[in-house]
Amino acid sequence: MLAFAIFIVTLILVIWQPKGLGIGWSAIGGALVALVFGVVQWSDVGIVWDIVWDATFTFVALIIISLILDEAGFFGWAALHVARLGNGRGRLLFPMIVLLGAFISAFFANDGAALLLTPIVIAILLRLDFAPKSALAFIIATGFIADTASLPLVTSNLVNIVSANYFDIGFGRYAAVMVPVNIVSVLATLLVLWIAYARHIPKRYSMANLSSPQSAIKDPLVFRAAFPLLALLLIAYFATESLGLVISVVTSAAALILMAIAGRWWQGGRDAKFSMTNILKKAPWQIVLFSIGMYLVVYGLGNAGLTAYGAQILNWLGQQGALVATVGTGFLSAIVASVMNNMPSTLIGALAIDSAQVPAATRELIIYANVIGNDLGPKFTPIGSLATLLWLHVLAEKDYKISWGQYMKVGLLITPPVLLATLLALVFWLPLLPSV
């Protein structure tokens, strides 16, 4: 009960974010209380840090890359291109915005998609003079696709990185399993969103107020470097896997290269279009504190018996066959993530899987089902993921306020069918791949 009480208070502070405290210091405070009361030991700090450090610094590096590209106008250029390719047809623009969100989520992580794409889409909707209900359809789509399309690569979500590192899944193996599964997730999301919002999407829109995509580009040098650098980064993830290089090293190298280009380091910063200092200030350094702090608090829950309970449930699910084990694990992870946030939920799930006694084939299925549940399941509630909290914060800053009741009504409508379709795709696809 003590471990649970510490967790609840810490989670409330993380969600509430009292002024000056932030998610990082709130989580560190909870971890210190857990250490003082013996819920976790100092030896656990090293164990937890070993689990989270690579994921944490990979995430920070990806956000730095995203912020630089955003300042350079890369995402604005892409969104304006999509708006023009829609050619004045609202029912073509809607799926194109969803697919743009899926692309950004895959390569720049779900938090990057929520943080960067949302204000750009809102700005375009204002220029297109969409009615409030029409604008809401596009805004909801942008927020939901950020998480539901964050499956394909290890780097697409912090959940993926933590899980892949914990279970020693290589970048190539993970992509081989999850890229096809992610395609199903994106298509299912698009279908469900279409059923829910098609009647609100305008048939036509005027393109008279749309700027040229080129006008969005603020740093041509960074813009020209973006595509080759991203392609090299993706190749490097696969190429360095056999060398044992951790993902954060590869991602940080790409971030440094982009910082050097944007900051014009070879000429002492002359002609730089924006400040690297400001970019680094915007980077999510609080995530470093949050990762170690929150995971220590959750590790305390595991020590107190939650891991054992989870393992018992997984053992029972594992005895019911591959289908029940996969779908059951996915929905269980989703429910836990929606209540306690997907980051701590991921660790609880991983610890429980590690303790469960199930056949090897079933074990691999439930490992990926735990990832899917923690990537998609947070959409049940506003507190389920940091990406959703970021998205709601961005909307509030733009005077688009969505209440928790409104959000959960949409989340409970959209998430279950998408989650079920994605888990069924995993059950079908994974057995077709060579075992490892």
TrEMBL record:
InterPro entries: Arsenical_pump_ArsB. GO terms for molecular function: antimonite secondary active transmembrane transporter activity; arsenite secondary active transmembrane transporter activity. It is found in: Cell membrane. GO terms for cellular component: plasma membrane. It is a multi-pass membrane protein. Keywords: Cell membrane, Membrane, Transmembrane, Transmembrane helix. CDD domains: ArsB_permease (cd01118). The chain crosses the membrane at residues 57-80, 92-108, 114-130, 135-154, 174-197, 221-239, 245-266, 287-309, 321-340, 410-430. It holds the Pfam family ArsB. This is Arsenical pump membrane protein. It comes from Psychrobacter luti. The lineage of its organism: Bacteria, Pseudomonadati, Pseudomonadota, Gammaproteobacteria, Moraxellales.
